[in-house]
Every structure is written in C-alpha cells, then in structure tokens.
Amino acid sequence: MRVGVLTGGGDCPGLNAVIRGIVRKGVQEYGYDFTGFRDGWRGPLDGDVTRLDIPAVRGILPRGGTILGSSRTNPFQRDGGVARIKENLAKQEVDALIVIGGEDTLGVAARLSDEYGVPCVGVPKTIDNDLSATDYTFGFDTAVGIATEAIDRLHTTAESHMRVLVVEVMGRHTGWIALHSGLAGGANVILIPEQRFDVDQVCAWVTSRFGASYAPIVVVAEGAVPKDGAMVLKDGSLDSFGHVRLSGVGEWLAKEIEQRTGKEARTTVLGHVQRGGTPSAFDRWLATRFGLHAIDCVRDGDFGTMVALRGTGIVRVPITEATARLKTVDPALYEEVGVFFG
Amino acid sequence: MRVGVLTGGGDCPGLNAVIRGIVRKGVQEYGYDFTGFRDGWRGPLDGDVTRLDIPAVRGILPRGGTILGSSRTNPFQRDGGVARIKENLAKQEVDALIVIGGEDTLGVAARLSDEYGVPCVGVPKTIDNDLSATDYTFGFDTAVGIATEAIDRLHTTAESHMRVLVVEVMGRHTGWIALHSGLAGGANVILIPEQRFDVDQVCAWVTSRFGASYAPIVVVAEGAVPKDGAMVLKDGSLDSFGHVRLSGVGEWLAKEIEQRTGKEARTTVLGHVQRGGTPSAFDRWLATRFGLHAIDCVRDGDFGTMVALRGTGIVRVPITEATARLKTVDPALYEEVGVFFG
Amino acid sequence: MRVGVLTGGGDCPGLNAVIRGIVRKGVQEYGYDFTGFRDGWRGPLDGDVTRLDIPAVRGILPRGGTILGSSRTNPFQRDGGVARIKENLAKQEVDALIVIGGEDTLGVAARLSDEYGVPCVGVPKTIDNDLSATDYTFGFDTAVGIATEAIDRLHTTAESHMRVLVVEVMGRHTGWIALHSGLAGGANVILIPEQRFDVDQVCAWVTSRFGASYAPIVVVAEGAVPKDGAMVLKDGSLDSFGHVRLSGVGEWLAKEIEQRTGKEARTTVLGHVQRGGTPSAFDRWLATRFGLHAIDCVRDGDFGTMVALRGTGIVRVPITEATARLKTVDPALYEEVGVFFG
Amino acid sequence: MRVGVLTGGGDCPGLNAVIRGIVRKGVQEYGYDFTGFRDGWRGPLDGDVTRLDIPAVRGILPRGGTILGSSRTNPFQRDGGVARIKENLAKQEVDALIVIGGEDTLGVAARLSDEYGVPCVGVPKTIDNDLSATDYTFGFDTAVGIATEAIDRLHTTAESHMRVLVVEVMGRHTGWIALHSGLAGGANVILIPEQRFDVDQVCAWVTSRFGASYAPIVVVAEGAVPKDGAMVLKDGSLDSFGHVRLSGVGEWLAKEIEQRTGKEARTTVLGHVQRGGTPSAFDRWLATRFGLHAIDCVRDGDFGTMVALRGTGIVRVPITEATARLKTVDPALYEEVGVFFG
C-alpha cells in the first residue's frame, strides 16, 4: 500500500504534526509506503512528488508551516485536471490520498472521492476554526494564544494611559479568534463578522470604560463590518455600502473612535504573526491524533471521510458534511460573552 | 441574593478567571451580592470573609493563584464543622455557595448539599485533569504547555549530545500531563502511573533511539512506578515493594538508565513551575465560561450540581457523579500514542 | 531623609523594578522615607502623592507600567510651575527627588537641579534606547524581544508562501529597535529613520530574495522615511515632501512594493504591544541596578547626576550630558548589519 | 582563502548565529570559502568535514544547538594530535581556523596558534558567562531568561501556599545565572559557588520571609556549597568535607530547610532546559556580531586573538588573556544584590 499526502490552503501551525503522525503510524504499524505531493493539489496535477518516510518527518513536530508546501490550486479549474491527477496517482502507484486542508482543498477531495472514485481521506485545517463537524481545528489554539498574549501586553499601556487600544485579529468570515482571544485577554469590546457592529455603541462602551477604570481595549476581527456608514477601502476608495472590504477595519475604527469620542486611539494589526511559529501543545496533540486516525481510515478503506474532534475523541464524518457550511459564532455564545463588554 | 465563593485545594491557573466570571455576570446581569470566603473551607468554618465585587475582580483574569486563598481544610474532620459552616453562612446572609475545587473540596460540597441542605454549586478544578464528568479541567492546558516548552528546549541538547534526558512532570495518580506534554513535545518514552513501567523496556527504547537518530527524551509522571525492583525513597530509605513513593522517580530512573545502558543521563524536575504563572488562553476561556455557568446554576436554584465541559459546551452534572471516580488514561489511548516510543 | 520619586513619559517595562530597587535599598540600608508623586511632574505640581514603602513595592518587579502613573506634564509650561513644585516638595518635607524618565522628563530635572537648586537624581528611561551617555536603557531589550518573536513567526509564512511580509516596529527618531529585532529575527531588509530609504532598492532586495530562497521580511521603523516620492499621511492627505508623517509607513511601503514588484505584501503593525507586559530578565536586572545606584546618589548628595550603564557597571553622569543629544544608529553599525540584507 | 570553523564544548544558544555571521560576511564581502569541521576538535583531528556555505546557514539563526556538532575532544590528549590537525588542515587547504568554544576549546586554540603556528581566531562561548575579557557571552541571556520565567511562575504558588520553593540553576563554578535570574525573578535567597552558604542563615531568611509576607523562593547554583556539614552526594554516599559534589544541592537544601524550619519545601531542577531552545534576541545580536568580527580578524590576519564584548562594541583580545582565569561574581556585586534577601 502506498499513500499520498498533500497539504493545501493557507499556513496553519500543526500541519507538520499531522504529516508526522500519518507517516509514523503508517510505516511502523502498517508497513505502508508514502509519497508526498508538493504544494497542495498542484503536486498530483503536475506529478511533483517528494520522499516521505520516517527520516523525512523527524524533528518537524514543533515546526510551523508544512514540509510539503501548499497552494490554492484547484484541479477543477484546470483543463483535464481530474484526469491528470488520476494519471499521476497511477504513475506513482499511489493507492490512497490523505488530503489536509480547509474548505476549498477538502471540497476537491470530496468531489474526487464521491464523483471520480479517487480514494481520499480528509483532515480538516483552518486557523479560523470555521469548519463544521469538528469541535476545533488545529492552528486555532495557537492563533488565539498569540492574539491573547498581545492583548495582555496592551493592558499595561491601558492601565497607564488614556488611549483606546484597537487590535485587529484574523477572521474574514467568522469571529472565533476575536471571540476567544478577546475573552481570554479581557478585552472590553469584541467585534465579529457575524454581527454588524454599531460604531456609536462601540464608542459608548469605550467612554463608559474610561469612567469605570482605565483605558479600553477593542478586539476586532478583520472581517467585521459596521452597521452603518462607509469604510475607506484598502486602496483608498470609498465603499458606499460599507460591507465590501478585506482589511484595515482596525485602523478605520480607531479613527472613527478618535473623531467621535475625542480620545486618542492606537492600532495593532497582528497579521500573519498569528499563523506562524511553533504550534501550541493543544494543537500538536490534536494534529497528531488527526494524523493517527487518518491513516486508520486508509487502513479501513474508509474513503470520502474526514477525521474530526468531538469532545476528547476523534470521529469520522463524510467530507461533504464538513464542508457544507461555515461554522459561525452562535449568537447565544456572543451574548454570553457580552457581559464583559464596556 | 448573596452568593458565597470559595476556592480549595492546590494552585491551578484559571481560578481567578472563574471568580471574575461569576462576579461579573452575577452583579451585572442578576444584581447579586457576593461574599468571598478565604482559604477554602476554612473561610466558612471560621467566618473569614473578604469583599468580592466588580473592583475586586478587576485585572485578575491573567493572574495565576487565587485572590481568595486556598487550603485543604476539611470541615467534616472538625468538631461541629458543618454546624459552624451553616451558622457562618447564615450570619453572612449567604444564600448559596459556589465551590471551586478538586475531588476533596467538591466532595465536601456534595455532602453539604445532599445531606445538610447547604445550597452548593461546584466548579471542577484539578491541574491533573483527572476529574470524571468533564472533558477538561482548567489549569491542565497551562501545565501541559509549560512541560511541552521544557521538552522542546531539551531537544536541542538531545540533538547535539549523547545524553539521555529525563523529565519528571506532575501527575501523582494519573498520567494526563505526561501523556499530553510527552506527545506534544515529541518524547521518545512516556511513563504514566496507570501502567507499571519495565525499566528494561525503557532502556531498550533508549538504546534503539541512539541507534536511529539522536539522544532520547524520557517523560515520566511523578507517580509512575516500575514493575519490578525497589525505588529509593525521598528520605533515602528503600521501599521494599517499589510502589510507595511520592517523588523522585525522575532522578531514580536516570540513575537506573545510566547503570543499565552505560549512557549518561540528566534529569529535569519541573515541580511547581507547572502550576504557576498566567493561565493559557484555553484555560482562561474554559475557566471564565465555568464561572458564567456556575452563577446561572445559582440563579436556576440548581444546587448539588457541578458545571462541566462536554465538547464545546458547558453542561451540568451532579457533583457526586464527578467525584465518584478518578479519570485515568484509557489504555487504548496510551497504546495509540505508543507508536512514537523508542 | 525623605525622598520623592516620580516617573514621566511613555510606558517602559522596568519602571516598577527601578522604584522597587530605590525603596528596598533606601528603607533597609539607609532608613529613608519615601513619597511617591503621581503622574510624572503633575504630582509635585499638584501635590498629588501616594504612599511608597516596602509593602507598596512588593510584587511589582515583573509588572509592566508604573505604580506611580505617568504623564507628559512639563512644569516649565505652567505658570509658576517651579514655585509650585518647590512649595509642594517643602510641604511634603521631601529632601531629594529621584526622577525616572526620558529626554523631556529628565530635561526638567536638569533645569530644576542646575538652575533652581532642587536636588534631583535622574534615571534614564526610553524604550527607543536613544539616550546618550548610557549603553542601554531598560525596556529596550523587552521591546526588541517582542518584535523578534513576531518576526520569527513570520518566517513560517515566508517559507511557505510567496508574500512579502512588512513589519512596522517602534522608533520615531532612531532605528535601534528595528536594527536589533531585524538582525535578531533574520530580516532581509531593515529600514531606520537615520537613513532615508530608496523604495527601488527595497524592491531590488525583495526581488533578489525571491530568487535566492523564499519570501522576504522587511522590518521598518515607524519613523523611517523614503528618499523620494510622497507618502500618504495617516489622515489620508498627501505629504508633498515625503518626510512629515508619524505612522503608517508599514502599510504604505507594502502597497508600494506590491505595485512595483507585482508580489503580494502583508503588513504587521505591532504598536503598543512592544511596550507592554513583563520586562525581560535583562531589563529587570538593569532597572533594579539603576534603582539601587540612584538611591546611592541621594545618599552621597550627588545631585544633578543620572545613573547610566557602561559595560557591566553603573556610572554617574551629569543629567545635562545625557539629554544633550539623541543617540542615533552609527552608520558604520548599519553598514555592518547590511551584509544580511537582500 | 578557505576558512575552517568548529564549535566545541557544551550546548549554548547562539552557536548557529555565530556560524551564520561568519559565513554570510565571509562569502558575500570577502569571497572566502568555508569548511565546517564536525564535533569540535574531533573534526580537524579525524579530517571529518562538512559543507559550509550560504545555503547551509540558511534558517539556522533562531535554532539552538550547532549545525557543526560539538565534543569535548582535546587534541593535546591524543598521540600526534597536533600533527594530525596540521595535516588535515593542509589536506583541506584551510588557511585559517575560527574556533568557537569555552575555556577548554579556546585553550587548545591558543596553544595551537601561539606554539604551533596554526592561524586561529577565537569566539568565546559559555552559558555560565564566566570567561574573562568579555562583558557577556552569548547563551547566558537565554539561560537567565528561562530561569527567570520559572521563578516568575513559582511566585504564584509562593503567594498561595506556605511552602519554601527551591530552584536549582546552572553554574558549576560561578553564580552568574543564579545571581541574574534570582535578582530578575525576585528571589528571596540567592546562593552562589563563590561564597559558601550558611544553612542557618538561609533558614533565618526563609523564616523571616514567612513573617513578612508570603513563602520564600531560594535560588541556588548547582555548584553552591554549604559552609558547614556534609552533603549527600549524587550517588548516595556522604561527602565528609561538604564541598565535593556535582549536583543535587537543590534537593539537599530543601530537605535541610524542612528539617530545620519545619516548613514544607519543594524543589525545581531546571537542568538542560536552560541551555536549549531558541536564543534570546540579545544572544542572537551578540553571537551574530561575534561572527561578523571573527571573520574580520581572519581578513586582517589577526590570529591568536578572540573577539569580545566591551560595552556595546566588539573588541579583540589575546585568546590567552581570555582563558587565563575564571570570571567570578564580584563580592561587592553580590552584596549589592543582598538587599533583596530575606
């Protein structure tokens, strides 16, 4: 049995831990051989492979990134993409494929498996934690930890000065990182993409905070959008609807707060810092176990499935189920946390 | 409504986050008043109280330890203990008690609630993660993170030198910290209290590791016990059965490995470092949500219950259920992880 | 003998360590009493004081910020400022004043001491490390450490993707933080205020880096200025000279790089994160020793002087000497480090 | 010009940064070629070499350990050692040798250079910071930072419990790590090898600390020795003089304190954790600059010299001067810090 492995989509701490788990168990317990495909779906499309064995996975557990490289290549957008993949898998004598990726990468795996008979097993990956069917995805805990540490540090300034501190964190479509880091960091306002925010409400919280104790910390997901008014787009042009814009909400909000409250505001934009560096212990544990269970799926011939976390156990779900819809922040949870706002 | 709060047992990062969650929601949402009892059950026994309101919980979220103090006092071991507690609760006009603690502290809460009609709500606390009925306890993730970082650092030496590195981590009765940090840190041997270890097997793993790549890292829980032979006790005397001993297994094992394999061995004993300092983001999230749900239990008059984590949700369980038995490492899980040994 | 202490200017990790050193030695060795003045020079101006004794300094060593508060108040810009200070010092029976601050705060101390006979001892404080007469100031090592860790994390993404990563760090007038963190983090381009940068040269380095290995990391001090062309100001207006602008150079540069090289660029703006949180061990050591030596200056009646680091020893210099000129990055040092560019 | 490089002695974070600095500048500025010798002096003895060029040093800056390997091999203790080294250098066409190491490794370089005409440049390396002629050695700041973080965490327990916490840190012959981490961590007792300690004095400090506030933290260098009485040796036997013993002083002292004061004591032994993992920003800066200056020494034909830190500048000193005597903690400095004891 020869198993191919690929990683697709954006960086996510823990990818290497998954790969190591797959290879260690596959070689030692089941005697499998492995082929690494480079740069996500580009690997099987172009037949670009790399050696993947025990020495290749030595020492990679604590390292961020992925030894296999990644890309956002989608074979369904290439002429004859599926045929080329099947051809290259055959040429490499690969009997099964483990696909580690997010919504897009896994969506391809689901179609290849269900429609074209390519035996795929999925491992969910998204730093945003927005995949259904799994309690958590690896990388998320690391990102939350980094954002929380940044917020912790801002408290020092908040205690000593009269400045509003705005922190923009990752989260295009969902507010998981903002919610968790904002709560863990003791932020006074948390703004998420799932709920349009009211700048006047934000300013009211900010002002009340100054009265009660010291300066406020505002955590805003990069995809958060105001209810009213327009935002200046990244390229300097105005968005007349106020909801098409990919970044810069932190800086925009800081300026609005300054103008409306008369208080100075400062912005921190963490950016890619949140997805780099060594994975947290939690993410290494989760990623490793995903790897161990993914190779078990291969052994069981259980294709078209994805491994997922439920409580403390790893379960198997259809890939299609996992990618069917975005896991957004439940309004009840956002409200629960709202007791700390202001 | 006036609610008493106490924290009992050993240190655990996240205690202050629970207290803050309770008070913030209790005051702001329900208009409750609070009384803090000092030093666990000693507080209500002696009527030793402290002010507990919004200003008192400001800034405590990232701080380890507990602003209420702690102790291992057991009122059932004091003459008239229960009567004194009921008397002091009445004197302080406390209508309900939130008890944050481990097996012993919660055991008292269960009896007071079930047998003596004291309205108690429990919040589970153990750094060892060995309480049934909850997926995780707060403090555990922090401890695992600290131990993992230490193991990470040891890899540098392991790569450069030919020394066996033994790390003794917490875990008197269960191996959760050893298992999680050992896996996350990429240890080559993990020894837990649930399974007697065979020193010859450990030496075989150690020796094979030297052959394969570089020097081995052995993670051993403080409560791990060898199958055979006697261990030198902490006071220097010999334990003729080899299973009564409270600490020092790391140093003992390093010496055994040196004698049996001829390889130099070095020991790291992390000790209380694992339970101090700021809680991880995960633990702050969990502890805060425990606090928010505990005060909801009080509002609902749901006494004799304990909050617990199941998946990503907080549920309520009878305190007695939670303290009935120790949650030990499942042999199947230990075996799953064993693929990384040697 | 009663000694007053104040802290002025911006946040800087280590302020509390200085205060603790002063008080511990002053009380225990010399039997002095202390008065804390609140919020920099505002304290002695308004007679706003706080208790400062052994219990007051307990536990503050690892904490960022300052227990005395800070401000940028300048008594020479207030009517009768000097008279009010002398009056309040007399009223509080303060015999000497220890002033912990940067250029502005110490400038006041120098004039008060030299022109008005107020017995002042100075302790240098600037996170930017730009004070003459001392090898290092406390807070700088902490800031460099935080920025370096962020750059470390960005390497993960740089290895996996083809994006230019721009990090804006502190440094309005000098490039010390950019230079040290950029070198320690292995940045491929470091831009400092002392030397106008050439965007085309930056783009050449960026492009050559893509050829040689993986994506480049550009560290830019917030006060760095391009040689040519205009920058968009923070308020959206254009600066026709290209050298008046207080922030936003990171975002501006990222956009320029995208346009000129065709490569995607992402920006991280660390902001106040760099000046918050616990001081590094180095900064605690330095700050504590500054405190111990400052109180010795008081004992020796050595006023108008400032403590300073030279090698591993603490020396005394005239305050005026220290504040006479900004310590900028030596061009030879910048050139030495330039071997790592591109 | 072909330059050989070797690293000898124990692990020290920053070794790779030195190597990278040497190679980057040597190749880019001077057009030199390099040969890496493996495992310290064993490399030139056995002719064991490895490729050392720009790709070989890519990405190694943040990594602990040394890509060249290390050993404690001493060519003067091998028959014909010097002749074999000269022969292998000639065979590899190596014109100069950069030797990165501590007292022993540099001692060999000094003799080879001075007595046998082998053109050597030295770079000082010791985590213990005990080399004369340089203000600091790289690795020391990292070790101090790790020990300080551990002490920080212990404060949590010290605040909540009535236990004495003993931390054993590195330092066989000198107390630099104990002194710096103990001061930075706010320890209540610091014991160093340079000054015999009096257990009764330690117990007096411990007892007075319990009275004043909360539980004491005792930092003890592994090489610290009591004034009176015997210590149990690591192998269980008794040392009748009380001053020959290589490790275990932490555990021994904890037991003594328990017996003499009646207070419970707990021990943390950090061990090799202190010398592993990524170097601090300070150490990367220092190590890189050492590398840049070492290759300048080669260019200048300045052999028999060692680079050293003086203030913020790098200077050159004779290797023999640097290795002539151990840099011990100045009694005046120890006394200065003593104001924080008890």
From TrEMBL, chains A, B, C, D:
Biological classification of the source: Bacteria, Bacillati, Actinomycetota, Actinomycetes, Kitasatosporales
Alphabetical list of Pfam families matching this protein: PFK
Residues the entry annotates as binding Mg(2+): 103
Gene3D superfamilies per record: 3.40.50.450, Phosphofructokinase domain
Name of this protein: Pyrophosphate--fructose 6-phosphate 1-phosphotransferase
Activity regulation, per record: Non-allosteric.
Subunit structure: Homodimer or homotetramer.
Residues in the signal sequence: none
Binding site for diphosphate: 10
Family matches, as HAMAP family: Phosphofructokinase_III
Chief subcellular location: cytoplasm
Organism from which the protein derives: Streptomyces cinereospinus
Presence of keyword NADP: no
EC class of the enzyme, as a word: transferase
Record field: catalytic activity: beta-D-fructose 6-phosphate + diphosphate = beta-D-fructose 1,6-bisphosphate + phosphate + H(+)
